[in-house]
TrEMBL record:
It is a multi-pass membrane protein. It comes from Bradyrhizobium denitrificans. Its main location: membrane. Residues 9-326 form the Acyltransferase domain. Residues 408-611 form the SGNH domain. The keyword Transport does not apply. This is Acyltransferase. Keywords: Acyltransferase, Cell membrane, Membrane, Transferase, Transmembrane, Transmembrane helix. It is found in: Cell membrane. Pfam families: Acyl_transf_3, SGNH. It comes from the Bacteria. One of its GO terms (molecular function) is acyltransferase activity. The chain crosses the membrane at residues 34-54, 75-96, 102-119, 164-184, 246-264, 271-294, 314-331, 343-366.
Protein backbone atom coordinates (compact mmCIF):
# COMPACT_ATOMS: atom_id res chain seq x y z
CA UNK A 1 0.00 0.00 0.00
CA UNK A 2 1.51 3.29 -1.03
CA UNK A 3 1.83 5.98 1.57
CA UNK A 4 0.35 8.41 -0.94
CA UNK A 5 -2.48 6.19 -2.17
CA UNK A 6 -5.76 8.09 -1.95
CA UNK A 7 -8.44 6.46 0.19
CA UNK A 8 -11.96 7.79 -0.56
CA UNK A 9 -13.29 5.59 2.25
CA UNK A 10 -11.23 7.59 4.73
CA UNK A 11 -12.76 10.83 3.51
CA UNK A 12 -16.15 9.19 4.03
CA UNK A 13 -15.09 8.34 7.58
CA UNK A 14 -14.03 11.95 8.11
CA UNK A 15 -17.40 13.12 6.82
CA UNK A 16 -19.18 10.77 9.19
CA UNK A 17 -17.02 11.93 12.10
CA UNK A 18 -17.48 15.67 11.57
CA UNK A 19 -21.19 15.33 10.76
CA UNK A 20 -21.73 13.34 13.96
CA UNK A 21 -19.94 15.92 16.10
CA UNK A 22 -21.77 18.87 14.53
CA UNK A 23 -25.16 17.15 14.77
CA UNK A 24 -24.52 16.36 18.43
CA UNK A 25 -23.47 19.91 19.27
CA UNK A 26 -26.35 21.42 17.27
CA UNK A 27 -28.85 19.01 18.86
CA UNK A 28 -29.86 17.43 15.57
CA UNK A 29 -31.51 14.02 15.83
CA UNK A 30 -30.65 11.17 15.90
CA UNK A 31 -27.01 11.82 16.86
CA UNK A 32 -27.50 11.75 20.62
CA UNK A 33 -23.96 10.38 21.10
CA UNK A 34 -22.36 12.05 18.10
CA UNK A 35 -19.35 12.99 20.22
CA UNK A 36 -17.90 9.61 19.16
CA UNK A 37 -16.85 11.36 15.94
CA UNK A 38 -13.74 12.56 17.77
CA UNK A 39 -12.74 8.94 18.42
CA UNK A 40 -13.11 8.24 14.70
CA UNK A 41 -10.74 11.14 13.94
CA UNK A 42 -8.15 9.76 16.39
CA UNK A 43 -8.10 6.33 14.75
CA UNK A 44 -7.81 7.90 11.29
CA UNK A 45 -4.93 10.13 12.43
CA UNK A 46 -3.05 7.21 13.96
CA UNK A 47 -3.42 5.26 10.73
CA UNK A 48 -2.42 8.00 8.28
CA UNK A 49 0.50 9.39 10.25
CA UNK A 50 1.96 5.95 10.94
CA UNK A 51 1.54 4.90 7.32
CA UNK A 52 3.49 7.95 6.13
CA UNK A 53 6.26 7.68 8.74
CA UNK A 54 6.72 3.94 8.18
CA UNK A 55 6.94 4.31 4.40
CA UNK A 56 9.50 7.12 4.68
CA UNK A 57 11.51 5.25 7.30
CA UNK A 58 11.70 2.22 5.01
CA UNK A 59 12.82 4.43 2.13
CA UNK A 60 15.36 6.22 4.33
CA UNK A 61 13.78 9.60 3.64
CA UNK A 62 12.09 10.28 6.96
CA UNK A 63 12.85 13.70 8.47
CA UNK A 64 11.25 15.04 11.61
CA UNK A 65 11.66 18.59 10.27
CA UNK A 66 9.84 17.68 7.05
CA UNK A 67 7.16 15.89 9.04
CA UNK A 68 6.51 18.99 11.16
CA UNK A 69 6.41 21.20 8.08
CA UNK A 70 3.66 19.01 6.62
CA UNK A 71 1.73 19.00 9.89
CA UNK A 72 2.10 22.78 10.18
CA UNK A 73 0.76 23.26 6.65
CA UNK A 74 -2.15 20.94 7.34
CA UNK A 75 -3.21 22.15 10.79
CA UNK A 76 -2.00 25.61 11.67
CA UNK A 77 -3.17 28.04 8.92
CA UNK A 78 -6.89 27.33 9.35
CA UNK A 79 -6.51 26.99 13.14
CA UNK A 80 -4.78 30.37 13.47
CA UNK A 81 -7.38 32.04 11.23
CA UNK A 82 -10.18 30.60 13.38
CA UNK A 83 -8.33 31.68 16.50
CA UNK A 84 -8.00 35.31 15.41
CA UNK A 85 -11.64 35.49 14.30
CA UNK A 86 -12.88 33.89 17.52
CA UNK A 87 -10.91 36.30 19.70
CA UNK A 88 -12.22 39.31 17.80
CA UNK A 89 -15.80 38.02 18.03
CA UNK A 90 -15.36 37.36 21.76
CA UNK A 91 -14.36 40.99 22.25
CA UNK A 92 -17.70 42.03 20.74
CA UNK A 93 -20.15 39.38 21.94
CA UNK A 94 -18.96 37.89 25.22
CA UNK A 95 -18.96 39.23 28.77
CA UNK A 96 -15.62 40.49 30.15
CA UNK A 97 -15.00 37.32 32.19
CA UNK A 98 -15.81 35.12 29.19
CA UNK A 99 -13.67 37.26 26.89
CA UNK A 100 -10.78 36.93 29.32
CA UNK A 101 -11.36 33.16 29.44
CA UNK A 102 -11.40 32.98 25.63
CA UNK A 103 -8.01 34.75 25.55
CA UNK A 104 -6.61 32.24 28.03
CA UNK A 105 -8.01 29.42 25.91
CA UNK A 106 -6.31 30.93 22.87
CA UNK A 107 -2.94 30.95 24.63
CA UNK A 108 -3.36 27.27 25.47
CA UNK A 109 -4.20 26.55 21.82
CA UNK A 110 -1.02 28.33 20.72
CA UNK A 111 0.90 26.23 23.26
CA UNK A 112 -0.74 23.01 21.93
CA UNK A 113 -2.14 22.28 25.38
CA UNK A 114 -5.80 23.29 25.33
CA UNK A 115 -6.87 19.78 26.35
CA UNK A 116 -4.85 20.19 29.55
CA UNK A 117 -6.48 23.56 30.27
CA UNK A 118 -10.02 22.24 29.80
CA UNK A 119 -9.25 19.16 31.88
CA UNK A 120 -8.05 21.42 34.72
CA UNK A 121 -11.29 23.42 34.56
CA UNK A 122 -13.64 20.50 35.16
CA UNK A 123 -15.83 20.78 38.24
CA UNK A 124 -19.43 20.58 39.38
CA UNK A 125 -19.97 24.34 39.18
CA UNK A 126 -17.55 24.99 36.33
CA UNK A 127 -18.72 27.24 33.51
CA UNK A 128 -20.97 25.54 30.97
CA UNK A 129 -19.15 24.07 27.98
CA UNK A 130 -21.11 26.23 25.54
CA UNK A 131 -19.61 29.40 27.05
CA UNK A 132 -16.08 28.32 26.00
CA UNK A 133 -15.73 29.14 22.28
CA UNK A 134 -12.46 27.22 21.89
CA UNK A 135 -13.44 24.10 23.82
CA UNK A 136 -13.42 21.97 20.67
CA UNK A 137 -9.67 22.50 20.28
CA UNK A 138 -9.05 19.96 23.06
CA UNK A 139 -8.97 17.19 20.45
CA UNK A 140 -6.38 19.13 18.43
CA UNK A 141 -4.28 19.34 21.60
CA UNK A 142 -4.38 15.54 21.95
CA UNK A 143 -3.32 15.04 18.33
CA UNK A 144 -0.60 17.70 18.49
CA UNK A 145 0.90 16.09 21.60
CA UNK A 146 0.84 12.76 19.77
CA UNK A 147 2.64 14.40 16.85
CA UNK A 148 5.39 15.58 19.19
CA UNK A 149 5.95 12.16 20.76
CA UNK A 150 5.31 9.52 18.11
CA UNK A 151 7.60 10.74 15.28
CA UNK A 152 10.52 10.74 17.73
CA UNK A 153 9.80 7.15 18.77
CA UNK A 154 8.68 5.77 15.40
CA UNK A 155 12.09 5.29 13.73
CA UNK A 156 13.33 3.28 16.71
CA UNK A 157 10.14 1.20 16.75
CA UNK A 158 10.24 0.53 13.00
CA UNK A 159 13.94 -0.38 13.18
CA UNK A 160 13.10 -3.44 15.30
CA UNK A 161 12.19 -6.86 13.99
CA UNK A 162 8.55 -7.01 12.93
CA UNK A 163 7.56 -9.10 15.95
CA UNK A 164 9.14 -6.62 18.36
CA UNK A 165 7.68 -3.66 16.48
CA UNK A 166 4.19 -5.12 16.70
CA UNK A 167 4.69 -6.06 20.35
CA UNK A 168 5.73 -2.47 21.14
CA UNK A 169 2.66 -0.98 19.46
CA UNK A 170 0.32 -3.56 20.98
CA UNK A 171 1.78 -2.87 24.45
CA UNK A 172 1.17 0.88 24.03
CA UNK A 173 -2.36 0.24 22.82
CA UNK A 174 -3.27 -2.21 25.59
CA UNK A 175 -1.68 -0.16 28.38
CA UNK A 176 -3.44 3.00 27.25
CA UNK A 177 -6.78 1.20 26.89
CA UNK A 178 -6.55 -0.27 30.40
CA UNK A 179 -5.67 3.18 31.74
CA UNK A 180 -8.66 4.60 29.86
CA UNK A 181 -11.05 2.04 31.37
CA UNK A 182 -9.81 2.60 34.92
CA UNK A 183 -9.53 6.37 34.58
CA UNK A 184 -13.02 6.69 33.10
CA UNK A 185 -14.37 5.35 36.38
CA UNK A 186 -12.22 7.30 38.83
CA UNK A 187 -11.03 10.35 36.85
CA UNK A 188 -13.44 10.72 33.91
CA UNK A 189 -12.25 14.21 32.93
CA UNK A 190 -8.64 13.02 32.64
CA UNK A 191 -9.72 10.00 30.59
CA UNK A 192 -11.68 12.24 28.24
CA UNK A 193 -9.22 15.10 27.71
CA UNK A 194 -5.69 13.80 28.19
CA UNK A 195 -3.43 11.90 25.80
CA UNK A 196 -2.46 8.88 27.96
CA UNK A 197 -6.03 7.53 28.03
CA UNK A 198 -6.60 8.41 24.36
CA UNK A 199 -3.33 7.05 22.97
CA UNK A 200 -4.82 3.59 22.37
CA UNK A 201 -7.17 5.04 19.73
CA UNK A 202 -4.23 6.52 17.83
CA UNK A 203 -2.25 3.31 18.40
CA UNK A 204 -5.14 1.26 16.99
CA UNK A 205 -4.83 3.24 13.77
CA UNK A 206 -1.05 2.73 13.87
CA UNK A 207 -1.50 -1.05 14.13
CA UNK A 208 -3.68 -0.98 11.03
CA UNK A 209 -0.97 0.98 9.21
CA UNK A 210 1.66 -1.68 9.95
CA UNK A 211 -0.82 -4.38 8.84
CA UNK A 212 -1.03 -6.29 12.10
CA UNK A 213 -4.05 -7.94 10.48
CA UNK A 214 -3.37 -9.30 6.97
CA UNK A 215 -5.28 -7.49 4.20
CA UNK A 216 -8.45 -9.15 2.98
CA UNK A 217 -8.06 -10.62 -0.51
CA UNK A 218 -11.68 -11.28 -1.32
CA UNK A 219 -13.84 -8.33 -2.41
CA UNK A 220 -16.83 -9.99 -0.74
CA UNK A 221 -15.01 -10.17 2.58
CA UNK A 222 -13.92 -6.56 2.20
CA UNK A 223 -17.46 -5.41 1.57
CA UNK A 224 -18.68 -7.51 4.51
CA UNK A 225 -16.07 -6.10 6.90
CA UNK A 226 -16.74 -2.52 5.77
CA UNK A 227 -20.48 -3.05 6.17
CA UNK A 228 -20.03 -4.32 9.73
CA UNK A 229 -17.80 -1.33 10.45
CA UNK A 230 -20.37 1.17 9.19
CA UNK A 231 -23.11 -0.58 11.17
CA UNK A 232 -21.00 -0.25 14.32
CA UNK A 233 -20.41 3.43 13.56
CA UNK A 234 -24.09 4.05 12.90
CA UNK A 235 -24.98 2.38 16.20
CA UNK A 236 -22.32 4.28 18.13
CA UNK A 237 -23.91 7.69 17.49
CA UNK A 238 -27.19 6.54 19.06
CA UNK A 239 -26.64 3.87 21.69
CA UNK A 240 -24.90 5.87 24.41
CA UNK A 241 -26.74 8.05 26.89
CA UNK A 242 -25.48 10.93 29.07
CA UNK A 243 -25.03 8.36 31.85
CA UNK A 244 -22.71 6.14 29.80
CA UNK A 245 -19.15 6.32 31.19
CA UNK A 246 -17.06 7.64 28.31
CA UNK A 247 -14.60 6.99 26.73
CA UNK A 248 -13.89 3.74 28.64
CA UNK A 249 -15.05 0.43 27.18
CA UNK A 250 -17.85 2.21 25.29
CA UNK A 251 -15.29 3.86 22.97
CA UNK A 252 -14.43 0.44 21.54
CA UNK A 253 -17.58 0.50 19.39
CA UNK A 254 -16.75 3.55 17.23
CA UNK A 255 -13.02 2.79 17.24
CA UNK A 256 -13.39 -0.83 16.14
CA UNK A 257 -16.02 0.24 13.60
CA UNK A 258 -13.55 2.76 12.14
CA UNK A 259 -10.78 0.16 12.18
CA UNK A 260 -12.99 -2.32 10.31
CA UNK A 261 -13.71 0.20 7.54
CA UNK A 262 -10.03 1.14 7.19
CA UNK A 263 -8.93 -2.49 7.23
CA UNK A 264 -11.56 -3.61 4.70
CA UNK A 265 -10.69 -1.05 2.04
CA UNK A 266 -13.19 -2.36 -0.52
CA UNK A 267 -12.49 -1.36 -4.11
CA UNK A 268 -15.31 1.07 -4.98
CA UNK A 269 -16.94 0.90 -8.37
CA UNK A 270 -17.98 3.96 -10.34
CA UNK A 271 -21.55 3.86 -9.03
CA UNK A 272 -20.38 3.82 -5.39
CA UNK A 273 -17.90 6.62 -6.02
CA UNK A 274 -20.60 8.74 -7.64
CA UNK A 275 -23.03 8.08 -4.79
CA UNK A 276 -20.47 8.94 -2.13
CA UNK A 277 -19.09 12.04 -3.85
CA UNK A 278 -20.98 14.46 -1.57
CA UNK A 279 -19.71 12.57 1.47
CA UNK A 280 -16.16 12.66 0.12
CA UNK A 281 -16.47 16.43 -0.37
CA UNK A 282 -17.57 16.86 3.25
CA UNK A 283 -14.61 14.71 4.27
CA UNK A 284 -12.25 17.03 2.40
CA UNK A 285 -13.78 20.01 4.23
CA UNK A 286 -13.99 18.18 7.56
CA UNK A 287 -11.11 19.95 9.28
CA UNK A 288 -12.45 23.43 8.56
CA UNK A 289 -15.98 22.32 9.43
CA UNK A 290 -14.74 21.04 12.77
CA UNK A 291 -12.80 24.23 13.48
CA UNK A 292 -15.72 26.58 12.85
CA UNK A 293 -18.76 24.65 14.04
CA UNK A 294 -18.21 25.22 17.78
CA UNK A 295 -17.45 28.97 17.81
CA UNK A 296 -20.59 29.47 15.68
CA UNK A 297 -22.91 27.73 18.13
CA UNK A 298 -21.09 29.17 21.16
CA UNK A 299 -21.51 32.79 20.02
CA UNK A 300 -25.06 32.20 18.78
CA UNK A 301 -26.00 30.77 22.17
CA UNK A 302 -24.40 33.73 23.95
CA UNK A 303 -26.74 36.05 22.03
CA UNK A 304 -29.96 34.12 21.38
CA UNK A 305 -29.71 31.01 23.53
CA UNK A 306 -29.37 27.36 22.44
CA UNK A 307 -30.86 26.49 19.04
CA UNK A 308 -34.35 25.10 19.52
CA UNK A 309 -36.19 25.23 16.21
CA UNK A 310 -35.33 23.59 12.91
CA UNK A 311 -34.74 27.04 11.42
CA UNK A 312 -32.29 27.91 14.20
CA UNK A 313 -30.28 24.77 13.50
CA UNK A 314 -30.43 25.28 9.75
CA UNK A 315 -29.10 28.80 10.21
CA UNK A 316 -26.20 27.52 12.34
CA UNK A 317 -25.37 24.88 9.73
CA UNK A 318 -25.41 27.50 6.97
CA UNK A 319 -23.12 29.84 8.91
CA UNK A 320 -20.75 27.02 9.85
CA UNK A 321 -20.60 25.73 6.26
CA UNK A 322 -19.99 29.17 4.78
CA UNK A 323 -17.10 29.86 7.18
CA UNK A 324 -15.68 26.38 6.64
CA UNK A 325 -15.70 26.71 2.84
CA UNK A 326 -14.08 30.13 3.06
CA UNK A 327 -11.45 28.66 5.37
CA UNK A 328 -10.85 25.67 3.10
CA UNK A 329 -10.51 27.56 -0.18
CA UNK A 330 -8.95 30.79 1.06
CA UNK A 331 -6.67 29.47 3.84
CA UNK A 332 -6.17 25.70 3.88
CA UNK A 333 -5.58 25.10 0.17
CA UNK A 334 -3.39 28.16 -0.52
CA UNK A 335 -1.21 27.29 2.49
CA UNK A 336 -0.60 23.81 1.10
CA UNK A 337 0.16 25.00 -2.41
CA UNK A 338 2.44 27.90 -1.52
CA UNK A 339 6.19 27.59 -1.12
CA UNK A 340 7.14 26.79 2.48
CA UNK A 341 8.87 30.15 3.19
CA UNK A 342 5.68 31.98 2.14
CA UNK A 343 3.46 29.73 4.27
CA UNK A 344 5.87 30.01 7.20
CA UNK A 345 5.78 33.82 7.10
CA UNK A 346 1.98 33.84 6.98
CA UNK A 347 1.83 31.34 9.83
CA UNK A 348 4.15 33.46 11.92
CA UNK A 349 2.09 36.58 11.22
CA UNK A 350 -1.27 34.97 12.04
CA UNK A 351 0.12 33.27 15.14
CA UNK A 352 1.62 36.54 16.32
CA UNK A 353 -1.69 38.31 15.68
CA UNK A 354 -3.59 35.75 17.76
CA UNK A 355 -1.00 36.01 20.52
CA UNK A 356 -1.16 39.82 20.51
CA UNK A 357 -4.98 39.90 20.66
CA UNK A 358 -4.96 37.37 23.51
CA UNK A 359 -2.34 39.27 25.52
CA UNK A 360 -4.09 42.63 25.06
CA UNK A 361 -7.42 41.05 26.03
CA UNK A 362 -5.94 39.60 29.21
CA UNK A 363 -4.19 42.89 30.02
CA UNK A 364 -7.47 44.79 29.62
CA UNK A 365 -9.42 42.22 31.72
CA UNK A 366 -11.77 41.50 28.81
CA UNK A 367 -12.59 45.15 27.89
CA UNK A 368 -15.25 45.79 30.57
CA UNK A 369 -15.76 49.35 29.29
CA UNK A 370 -18.02 47.91 26.56
CA UNK A 371 -20.74 47.45 29.18
CA UNK A 372 -22.85 49.83 31.24
CA UNK A 373 -22.39 49.86 35.05
CA UNK A 374 -25.61 47.87 35.44
CA UNK A 375 -24.44 45.26 32.92
CA UNK A 376 -21.04 45.05 34.61
CA UNK A 377 -22.77 44.46 37.96
CA UNK A 378 -24.76 41.61 36.43
CA UNK A 379 -21.65 40.21 34.76
CA UNK A 380 -19.98 40.12 38.18
CA UNK A 381 -22.37 37.33 39.17
CA UNK A 382 -20.74 35.03 36.61
CA UNK A 383 -17.90 34.56 39.10
CA UNK A 384 -20.30 34.38 42.04
CA UNK A 385 -18.75 32.83 45.15
CA UNK A 386 -21.46 30.43 46.26
CA UNK A 387 -19.29 28.39 48.63
CA UNK A 388 -20.14 30.28 51.82
CA UNK A 389 -23.81 30.74 50.96
CA UNK A 390 -24.22 27.03 50.17
CA UNK A 391 -21.92 25.89 53.06
CA UNK A 392 -19.80 23.97 50.60
CA UNK A 393 -17.57 21.29 52.09
CA UNK A 394 -19.33 21.24 55.48
CA UNK A 395 -23.10 20.86 55.10
CA UNK A 396 -23.05 20.74 51.28
CA UNK A 397 -20.67 17.97 50.24
CA UNK A 398 -18.89 17.66 46.93
CA UNK A 399 -19.25 14.42 44.91
CA UNK A 400 -15.83 13.32 46.16
CA UNK A 401 -16.74 13.60 49.85
CA UNK A 402 -18.45 10.97 51.99
CA UNK A 403 -21.21 11.12 54.57
CA UNK A 404 -18.61 11.33 57.36
CA UNK A 405 -17.55 14.75 56.03
CA UNK A 406 -20.93 16.18 57.09
CA UNK A 407 -20.10 18.43 60.03
CA UNK A 408 -21.92 17.81 63.37
CA UNK A 409 -23.01 21.45 63.47
CA UNK A 410 -25.05 20.87 60.31
CA UNK A 411 -27.24 18.35 62.12
CA UNK A 412 -27.27 19.83 65.62
CA UNK A 413 -30.66 20.18 67.30
CA UNK A 414 -31.61 23.72 68.25
CA UNK A 415 -34.49 25.79 69.64
CA UNK A 416 -37.91 25.90 68.04
CA UNK A 417 -39.03 23.50 65.34
CA UNK A 418 -36.27 21.30 63.94
CA UNK A 419 -36.32 21.06 60.15
CA UNK A 420 -34.00 18.87 58.07
CA UNK A 421 -33.18 19.92 54.49
CA UNK A 422 -32.11 16.92 52.41
CA UNK A 423 -31.09 17.00 48.74
CA UNK A 424 -28.52 18.10 46.19
CA UNK A 425 -27.30 21.55 45.11
CA UNK A 426 -30.91 22.56 44.50
CA UNK A 427 -31.46 22.04 48.20
CA UNK A 428 -28.22 23.76 49.21
CA UNK A 429 -29.15 26.90 47.29
CA UNK A 430 -32.23 27.29 49.55
CA UNK A 431 -30.25 27.22 52.82
CA UNK A 432 -29.48 30.92 53.12
CA UNK A 433 -33.04 31.95 52.33
CA UNK A 434 -34.68 29.35 54.59
CA UNK A 435 -32.56 30.44 57.53
CA UNK A 436 -33.83 33.98 57.06
CA UNK A 437 -37.42 33.02 56.30
CA UNK A 438 -37.73 30.75 59.37
CA UNK A 439 -35.73 32.66 61.92
CA UNK A 440 -37.41 30.99 64.90
CA UNK A 441 -36.79 27.43 63.68
CA UNK A 442 -33.60 25.35 63.47
CA UNK A 443 -32.60 24.35 59.95
CA UNK A 444 -30.47 21.21 59.80
CA UNK A 445 -28.73 20.54 56.49
CA UNK A 446 -27.63 17.36 54.74
CA UNK A 447 -26.92 18.06 51.07
CA UNK A 448 -24.56 16.65 48.46
CA UNK A 449 -23.83 17.74 44.88
CA UNK A 450 -25.27 15.54 42.14
CA UNK A 451 -27.29 13.57 44.68
CA UNK A 452 -31.10 13.76 44.56
CA UNK A 453 -32.73 12.79 47.87
CA UNK A 454 -33.55 9.19 47.01
CA UNK A 455 -31.65 6.12 45.86
CA UNK A 456 -31.45 6.47 42.11
CA UNK A 457 -30.03 4.09 39.52
CA UNK A 458 -26.62 5.26 38.35
CA UNK A 459 -25.81 7.36 41.42
CA UNK A 460 -22.19 7.54 42.52
CA UNK A 461 -21.08 5.28 45.34
CA UNK A 462 -20.67 8.30 47.64
CA UNK A 463 -24.20 9.52 46.84
CA UNK A 464 -25.67 6.06 47.33
CA UNK A 465 -24.01 5.77 50.74
CA UNK A 466 -25.17 9.29 51.63
CA UNK A 467 -28.80 8.44 50.82
CA UNK A 468 -28.64 5.10 52.63
CA UNK A 469 -27.40 6.82 55.80
CA UNK A 470 -30.09 9.52 55.88
CA UNK A 471 -33.02 7.26 56.98
CA UNK A 472 -30.92 6.16 59.95
CA UNK A 473 -30.31 9.82 60.76
CA UNK A 474 -34.05 10.49 60.56
CA UNK A 475 -34.79 7.80 63.09
CA UNK A 476 -32.06 9.10 65.37
CA UNK A 477 -32.89 12.82 65.20
CA UNK A 478 -36.64 12.71 64.42
CA UNK A 479 -36.93 16.22 62.90
CA UNK A 480 -40.33 17.86 62.92
CA UNK A 481 -40.22 18.49 59.18
CA UNK A 482 -38.11 17.05 56.38
CA UNK A 483 -37.70 19.20 53.26
CA UNK A 484 -36.78 17.27 50.10
CA UNK A 485 -35.38 19.34 47.26
CA UNK A 486 -33.40 18.33 44.21
CA UNK A 487 -32.67 18.80 40.55
CA UNK A 488 -35.75 16.85 39.50
CA UNK A 489 -35.61 15.78 35.88
CA UNK A 490 -37.48 13.32 33.72
CA UNK A 491 -35.69 10.48 35.51
CA UNK A 492 -38.02 10.98 38.47
CA UNK A 493 -40.88 9.90 36.21
CA UNK A 494 -39.44 6.39 35.82
CA UNK A 495 -41.30 3.74 37.87
CA UNK A 496 -38.15 2.76 39.77
CA UNK A 497 -37.41 6.39 40.68
CA UNK A 498 -40.99 6.91 41.85
CA UNK A 499 -40.71 3.88 44.12
CA UNK A 500 -37.41 5.15 45.53
CA UNK A 501 -38.85 8.60 46.19
CA UNK A 502 -41.83 7.03 47.97
CA UNK A 503 -39.37 5.00 50.08
CA UNK A 504 -37.58 8.18 51.14
CA UNK A 505 -40.88 9.84 52.09
CA UNK A 506 -41.98 6.72 53.96
CA UNK A 507 -38.74 6.68 55.97
CA UNK A 508 -39.30 10.30 56.99
CA UNK A 509 -42.95 9.87 57.96
CA UNK A 510 -42.12 6.65 59.85
CA UNK A 511 -39.73 8.73 61.97
CA UNK A 512 -42.62 11.04 62.86
CA UNK A 513 -41.68 13.86 60.48
CA UNK A 514 -43.88 15.77 58.10
CA UNK A 515 -42.49 15.97 54.58
CA UNK A 516 -42.37 19.01 52.29
CA UNK A 517 -41.23 18.32 48.74
CA UNK A 518 -39.99 21.38 46.85
CA UNK A 519 -40.57 21.15 43.10
CA UNK A 520 -38.02 22.03 40.41
CA UNK A 521 -36.59 25.51 40.48
CA UNK A 522 -36.47 27.58 37.29
CA UNK A 523 -33.56 26.40 35.16
CA UNK A 524 -32.69 28.54 32.21
CA UNK A 525 -31.18 27.53 28.91
CA UNK A 526 -28.04 29.52 29.78
CA UNK A 527 -26.66 31.34 32.84
CA UNK A 528 -29.22 33.94 33.89
CA UNK A 529 -26.76 36.89 33.98
CA UNK A 530 -25.94 36.11 30.33
CA UNK A 531 -29.62 36.16 29.44
CA UNK A 532 -30.25 39.44 31.23
CA UNK A 533 -27.31 41.16 29.55
CA UNK A 534 -28.18 39.71 26.12
CA UNK A 535 -31.69 41.07 26.63
CA UNK A 536 -30.40 44.60 27.26
CA UNK A 537 -27.61 44.53 24.64
CA UNK A 538 -29.18 42.61 21.77
CA UNK A 539 -32.90 42.95 22.44
CA UNK A 540 -33.32 39.24 23.14
CA UNK A 541 -36.72 38.32 24.64
CA UNK A 542 -36.11 37.28 28.25
CA UNK A 543 -39.21 35.05 28.38
CA UNK A 544 -39.36 31.44 27.24
CA UNK A 545 -35.91 30.38 28.34
CA UNK A 546 -36.96 27.71 30.86
CA UNK A 547 -37.23 24.35 29.04
CA UNK A 548 -40.76 22.93 29.06
CA UNK A 549 -39.41 19.72 30.57
CA UNK A 550 -39.28 21.34 34.00
CA UNK A 551 -42.94 22.35 33.87
CA UNK A 552 -43.83 18.77 32.88
CA UNK A 553 -41.84 17.40 35.81
CA UNK A 554 -43.50 19.92 38.14
CA UNK A 555 -46.97 18.78 37.04
CA UNK A 556 -45.96 15.13 37.41
CA UNK A 557 -44.67 15.56 40.96
CA UNK A 558 -47.74 17.57 41.99
CA UNK A 559 -50.05 14.77 40.81
CA UNK A 560 -47.82 12.04 42.22
CA UNK A 561 -47.66 13.43 45.73
CA UNK A 562 -51.11 14.98 46.19
CA UNK A 563 -52.47 11.93 48.05
CA UNK A 564 -49.33 10.88 49.92
CA UNK A 565 -49.96 11.09 53.70
CA UNK A 566 -48.06 13.67 55.76
CA UNK A 567 -46.59 15.17 52.59
CA UNK A 568 -46.96 18.64 51.08
CA UNK A 569 -45.83 19.62 47.63
CA UNK A 570 -44.69 23.19 46.93
CA UNK A 571 -44.31 24.21 43.30
CA UNK A 572 -41.44 26.66 42.94
CA UNK A 573 -42.39 27.20 39.30
CA UNK A 574 -45.86 28.33 40.37
CA UNK A 575 -44.29 30.72 42.86
CA UNK A 576 -41.50 32.10 40.64
CA UNK A 577 -42.86 31.56 37.12
CA UNK A 578 -46.61 32.36 37.15
CA UNK A 579 -48.04 31.76 33.68
CA UNK A 580 -44.48 30.74 32.69
CA UNK A 581 -43.21 34.33 33.11
CA UNK A 582 -40.32 33.90 35.53
CA UNK A 583 -38.97 36.31 38.09
CA UNK A 584 -35.48 37.11 36.83
CA UNK A 585 -34.21 39.73 39.27
CA UNK A 586 -34.82 40.93 42.79
CA UNK A 587 -35.57 44.59 43.55
CA UNK A 588 -31.90 45.37 44.20
CA UNK A 589 -31.03 44.21 40.67
CA UNK A 590 -29.46 40.89 41.63
CA UNK A 591 -30.28 38.00 39.30
CA UNK A 592 -32.40 35.20 40.72
CA UNK A 593 -29.65 32.71 39.79
CA UNK A 594 -25.95 33.13 39.14
CA UNK A 595 -25.73 30.28 36.63
CA UNK A 596 -28.50 28.46 34.77
CA UNK A 597 -30.45 27.53 37.88
CA UNK A 598 -28.62 27.94 41.22
CA UNK A 599 -29.91 30.81 43.34
CA UNK A 600 -27.90 33.78 44.46
CA UNK A 601 -28.27 34.73 48.15
CA UNK A 602 -30.91 37.29 47.11
CA UNK A 603 -32.67 34.75 44.93
CA UNK A 604 -32.57 32.19 47.73
CA UNK A 605 -34.22 34.63 50.11
CA UNK A 606 -36.96 35.45 47.64
CA UNK A 607 -37.62 31.80 46.82
CA UNK A 608 -37.55 30.67 50.45
CA UNK A 609 -39.91 33.41 51.57
CA UNK A 610 -42.46 32.33 48.99
CA UNK A 611 -41.95 28.64 49.80
CA UNK A 612 -42.58 29.17 53.51
CA UNK A 613 -45.65 31.32 52.83
CA UNK A 614 -47.05 28.63 50.50
CA UNK A 615 -46.48 25.72 52.94
CA UNK A 616 -48.71 25.54 56.02
CA UNK A 617 -46.25 23.19 57.71
CA UNK A 618 -43.29 25.52 57.21
CA UNK A 619 -45.15 28.74 57.93
CA UNK A 620 -46.27 27.37 61.30
CA UNK A 621 -42.77 26.14 62.12
CA UNK A 622 -41.08 29.55 62.23
CA UNK A 623 -41.59 33.27 61.84
CA UNK A 624 -41.65 34.29 58.19
CA UNK A 625 -39.26 37.04 57.30
CA UNK A 626 -40.86 39.59 55.02
CA UNK A 627 -37.63 41.12 53.81
CA UNK A 628 -37.22 38.91 50.77
CA UNK A 629 -40.83 39.25 49.64
CA UNK A 630 -40.82 43.01 50.03
CA UNK A 631 -37.68 43.16 47.93
CA UNK A 632 -39.02 41.07 45.09
CA UNK A 633 -39.38 42.50 41.64
CA UNK A 634 -40.76 40.55 38.76
CA UNK A 635 -38.34 41.78 36.15
CA UNK A 636 -38.78 39.90 32.91
Amino acid sequence: MSSTEYRPDIDCLRAFAVSSVIAFHYDISPFRSGYVGVDVFFVISGFLITRIIRAETRAGTFSIAAFYRRRARRILPAAFAMLCATLLAACVVLLPQQTLSAAQQALSVLAFSSNILFWSQQGYFDAAAITKPLLHTWSLGVEEQYYFIFPALAPAIFARRRSLMLASLVAICVASFLLCVVQTRIQPAAAFYLLPARAWQLALGALLAVEIVPPLRSQRLRIGAATLGWIALGASVNVFSPRTPYPGVAALLPCLGTAAVIWAQPTPNRLVLAATRPMIAVGLWSYSLYLWHWPVVSFATAIWGPPSSAMDKLGLLAACTALALASFYLVEQPARRAEWPVTARRLAASGAAALLIAVITIWSAGFPGRFSPQQQALAGFINYDHSGVYEEGTCFLSPGQTFEALQPSCLARGPGSNILLWGDSHAAHLVDGLKRAMSQATLRRATMAQCVPYLERGQSAACGEFNRRLPELLREHAPDIVILSGNWTRSVMAPAARADLFATIAAATAAGSRVVVIGPSPQFDRPLPHLLIASSRFGVDSDGHVPTMFFAVDDFLRDLLKSVPQTDYVSLLDLLCPDKHCVLQTADGAPLAWDDGHFTAQGSELAATRIVAASPALSSAGTISSIGEQGAAQSR
